[in-house]
């Protein structure tokens, strides 16, 4: 399976960190460190309140902006929610859907995740659909079944012909924010499985074009190994994306892997 058919993406998930007045200094520091790779797309997925400032601060660079969640509803009496339309109007490109923290704390299910992915696609943006197993599921040998179901459930909401706009992030729950990373081989095994599930449902051409990211304590030390794996097309990075130096070193790792100058 050839990586040339898909995008390499390094996406930072800030979660609920920083305040809007910290965005500009962050952006300036990141700008000064912006790495050499040209083949990698960089995205920052930030709280809704930070999107406008970040967009203004980085507008001359090739960095995409994203949000971390979206409403399943189009508009109306849904106090506190943010719609796909609102995000598209702000110039957002990526939206995370189904992050394990949203599944755990905000009641997201495989079906609401699918609805959110469809809402994002409908407005011309790309959903980053997160899937991943718990430690117990891994220890009981249920990883592949669980991942298959999550991917199939999400795919059932994706219209034929729109698959190239989706991104899947494999994020083992036990590796998120814990400092524990899946080994290169463990991550590759699941990412290859995700691609096989897509191939089975939507065909080989679609499967080879969908970018699959790994997320879970990725950092400058382990990035190169993970990014070298055949079915891993980038990273979804939490903690390390809040440190411009670490984040830019992870982006640099893409250049090392692809042999770019
Ligand atoms: C994440 O939030 O998606 C994530 C992978 O976090 P961390 O890199 O901190 O484990």
Report on the structure:
This protein has 261 residues and is an alpha/beta fold. The chain has one domain: TIM Barrel (Alpha-Beta Barrel), CATH 3.20.20.70. The protein is 42% helix and 15% strand. The chain is built from 11 helices and 8 strands. It has helices at residues 20-33, 51-57, 84-89, 100-105, 110-122, 135-139, 143-155, 184-202, 204-209, 223-227, 244-258; strands at residues 8-13, 40-45, 63-67, 94-97, 126-131, 167-170, 211-215, 234-237. It has an 8-stranded parallel β-barrel, surrounded by 5 helices. Strand 3 (63-67), helix 3 and strand 4 form a beta-alpha-beta unit. Helix 5 crosses helix 7 and helix 7 (143-155) crosses helix 8. Residues 13, 15, 171, 176-177, 215-218, 236-240 line the site of phosphoenolpyruvate.
- Overall 3D shape: globular
The CATH C-level class name: Alpha Beta
Major sheet size, sense and barrel closure:
8 strands, parallel, barrel
Broad structural category = alpha/beta
Number of helices: 11
CATH superfamily: Aldolase class I
SSE topology string: EHEHEHEHHEHHEHHEHEH
- Compounds present? phosphoenolpyruvate
CATH topology: TIM Barrel
Instruction: Round the Cα radius of gyration to an integer and report it.
Output: 17 Å
The second-level CATH architecture is Alpha-Beta Barrel
The residue ranges in which pLDDT falls below 50 over 5 or more consecutive positions are none
Compute the number of strand runs: 8
Helix content: 40-55%
Strand order of the largest sheet: 1-2-3-4-5-6-7-8
* Approximate strand percentage: 15-25%
Instruction: Count structural domains.
Output: 1
Give the CA-CA distance, first to last residue.
Answer: 24 Å
Averaged pLDDT, please?
94
């Amino acid at each position: 399976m050839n990586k040339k058919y898909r995008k390499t993406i390094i996406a930072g998930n800030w979660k609920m960190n920083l305040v809007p007045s910290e965005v500009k200094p962050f952006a300036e520091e990141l700008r000064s460190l912006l790495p050499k790779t040209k083949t990698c797309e960089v995205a920052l997925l930030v709280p809704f309140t930070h999107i406008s400032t970040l967009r203004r601060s980085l507008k001359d660079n090739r960095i995409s902006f994203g949000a971390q969640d979206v409403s399943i509803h189009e508009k109306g009496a849904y106090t506190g929610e943010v719609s796909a339309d609102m995000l598209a109007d702000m110039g957002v490109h990526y939206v995370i859907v189904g992050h394990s923290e949203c599944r755990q704390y905000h009641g997201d299910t495989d079906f609401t995740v699918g609805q959110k992915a469809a809402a994002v696609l409908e407005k011309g943006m790309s959903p980053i659909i997160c899937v991943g197993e718990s430690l117990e599921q891994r220890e009981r040998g249920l990883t592949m079944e669980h991942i298959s179901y999550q991917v199939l459930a999400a795919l059932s909401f994706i219209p034929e012909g729109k698959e190239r706009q989706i991104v899947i992030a494999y994020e083992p729950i036990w590796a998120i924010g814990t400092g524990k990373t899946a080994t290169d081989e463990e991550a590759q095994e699941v990412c290859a499985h995700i691609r096989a599930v897509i191939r089975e449902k939507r065909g080989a051409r679609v499967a080879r074009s969908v970018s699959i990211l790994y997320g879970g304590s990725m950092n400058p030390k382990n990035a190169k190994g993970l990014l070298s794996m055949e079915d891993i097309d980038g990273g979804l990075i939490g903690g390390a994306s809040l440190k411009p130096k670490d984040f830019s070193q992870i982006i640099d790792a893409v250049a090392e892997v692809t042999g770019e100058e």
